[in-house]
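User: I'll paste a sequence; please echo it back and then give the predicted structure.

Assistant: Echoing your sequence first, then the prediction.
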Amino acid sequence: MANVGVLGAGSWGTALSVLLHDNGHHVTVWSIDPEEVCMLTKEREHKTKLPGVKIPEDMVFTTVMEEAINGKDVLVLAVPSPFTRATAKKMSPYVKEGQIIVDVAKGIEESTLMTLSMQIEEEIPQADVAVLSGPSHAEEVGRKLPTGCVVGAKTRKTAEYLQEMFTNEVFRVYTSPDILGIELGGSLKNVIALAAGMADGLGYGDNTKAALITRGIAEISRLGVKMGGKAESFSGLTGMGDLIVTCASVHSRNRKAGYLMGQGKSMQEAMDEVKMVVEGVYSAKAAAKLAKKYDVSMPIVEQINKILFEGKDPKIAVEELMLRSKKSEHASLPWPEENK
């Protein structure tokens, strides 16, 4: 049994806290919001973000960050990506040398183009930073529906330790040394999911969504490999797997926000209606900047940025994507007659 501190009591933090408790670990959960801590302590259920998932009576909730960090074997950082750096900065004074921190959010910082693990390492250089990602909606993990994820770490020892900690009969965890690939897949898929939601909102069909998913993973892979990620990661759970679930699921806040925009709502109206952090909106500009920095073609990402920040009509964006200059799907594949 391990002592685990979970920082962030939203839907994902709560679902993972219950999972870790079910696995026999002692869990303390921190939230910055006193009202949220009071509600979780009293109701033993996150009424707004994870309704129906019962929280064990012996799980501890606190607003005192030091209580969630001191004496813990592992820290799980589960705050939304826009707050990762600020939270890590506050954590740093309490984190011991070699402390394992598992980040479970997804995003890229627009101002620095750093992934979340990079931000954490910059603010908490003494920590051993790992990531957990994959197609894993909190609503389904909370209901104990079978789920597969990947933990990325710098050493096999840390990865396998975390694999053992999280794995059970309904939550299977794989290991990988490709932290960068895992994080890029998890972050960039949220931008593509906005596009998939917009297509649904416009009334387009399964053909459209399948095209967006497959061409979306092509864009993500091109950029990810150019940045140093591994191709295998983008064809796996944290690449194609996460992209599929985020583009298709009713639980996806990014798809829902895109759907509302496809129906004519503004970005802000859509975000207000979703009532949760829409990670893709925060990652879209960073994705476009990375595409420019690494000279990678990302037409879907480009159009999403124009819709979000320039007021472009989603229908016109789709038409322009369809009418771009004609291309081969895989330019590296040779034609037989050209080999003669």
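The first helix runs from residue 11 to 22. The mean pLDDT is 94.
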